[in-house]
Amino acid sequence: MTQRIDENRRRFRQIVRGQVRRNLRKYISRGELMGRQGKKKVAIPMPQIEIPRFTFGSKETGGVGQGEGEPGDPVGDERQSGGAGEAGDAPGEHALEVELTVEELAQILGEELELPRIEPKGTHRLITRKERYTGVRQTGPESLRHFKRTFKQALKRQVAMGTYNPKAPLIIPIREDKRYRSWKEVTIPHSNAVIIYMMDVSGSMGEEQKEIVRIESYWIDTWLRTQYEGLESRYIIHDAAAKEVDSETFFRTREAGGTMISSAYTLCLEMIQKDYPAGDWNVYPFHFSDGDNWSSDDTSKCIGLLRDELFGLINVFCYGQVRSPYGSGQFIRDLTEAFGEDEMLITSEISGREAIMDSIKDFLGKGK
Predict the structure, then answer these.
(1) pTM for the whole thing?
(2) Residue 121 maps to a domain
(3) 102: which of 27, 79, 86, 122 lies 20 to 30 Å off by Cα?
């Protein structure tokens, strides 16, 4: 009975994963899952999932060809056409709310976008998990049978029973002789990684644009945290000046002002030089803006900081530009003109919420 319940539960989880995967773009673009996150679990509303089955309708329901009536009478009950009616005792339609862990949801995201792991460097605190074969047991799949141990066990048994003939050695293992490799999940020290998020919070960035950035940053961070333990995240917001903030301020702040992108890049550079030596750390700066900068001189300063300073210290620089009715959108064109196909720079244009998943794919799909 317990085995059947487990099978049904696994089947239900597979159905749920399929439903979530089909609607993943909708769930992520809404941003509601950020607010619904509790104790590492997310409640996802979805239509009621029912197993198909035959049902019998009630008699005398007034359908065509049955019940009392005269030719020309309307089908159904006219009294219900206006939507008014008395209280009833029948249950209504309900949406099913399914709980998934954030890790499960991020795994579904990775499967849908076919996201690879980032390519690490350094050998310090970051931890990855790996299955390691560490022992032998008496049960297991035939693909893991330990032939040497099985042979030795069969030989010992035949010698003990006196059936072993040294002149005509023939070792035939029986079921009790078979031995199988066993494994356990071990943690292996890997490389350090830090993600530095930068967001333009100037007046040209409207609330919708800021919300798009928050949603995308949240899911990038969630995905990377499911891949590695010990991943650090730092947050910078900027208008005409830049400052470091905590994650809550980054995801919730409402500010306005002018725009000097170089202030964020300068602070990012100082942060890396102080805390994250290039030989030991994987450094991934992400910058989100609407592409509006104070002046061409400041844009030239940004390009110089990237080419002469940051590119030598980081794995890759990711720039996401959110479409805004108030921003010029020029910055991404300036970066493309300055760096062309340079692999150290990945750019992505985010036209709206529906483009968030495509942008995540742009940034993480190369596994750098």
Answers:
(1) 0.64
(2) no
(3) 122
Q: Write the CB contacts of 37 (distance below 8 Å, at least 6 apart in sequence).
A: 102
**Using CA atoms, how far apart are residues 14 and 293, in angstroms rounded to an integer?**
47
Number of structural domains, the chain?
3
- Whether residue 301 is found in the same domain as residue 178: no
Quick one: 231 and 278 in the same domain?
yes
pLDDT at 64 over 60: no
Decide: 202 and 327 in contact? Cβ < 8 Å: no
Q: Is residue 78 part of a domain?
A: no
Domain of residue 138: give its range: 131-187
Least confident of 48-57, 269-278, 358-367: 48-57
CA distance 58 to 277: 74
The more confidently predicted of residues 236 and 50 is: 236
Identify the pLDDT of residue 16: 66
Q: For residue 306, name the pLDDT band (cuts at 50, 70, 90).
A: very high
Q: Are residues 160 and 279 in the same domain?
A: no
Same domain, 208 and 296: yes
Rounded distance, CA 30 to CA 208, Å? 11
Shared domain for 197 and 337, answered yes or no, is: yes
Same structural domain for residues 218 and 334? yes
User: Scanning the structure block, which residue is given the tokens 């696994």?
Assistant: 10
Task: Quote the pLDDT of residue 323.
Answer: 92
Lowest mean pLDDT among 29-38, 53-62, 75-84, 350-359: 75-84
User: How many angstroms from the chain centroid is the CA of residue 32?
Assistant: 15
Residue 136 included in any domain: yes
More confident residue, 323 or 139: 323
Domain shared by 318 and 195, yes or no: yes
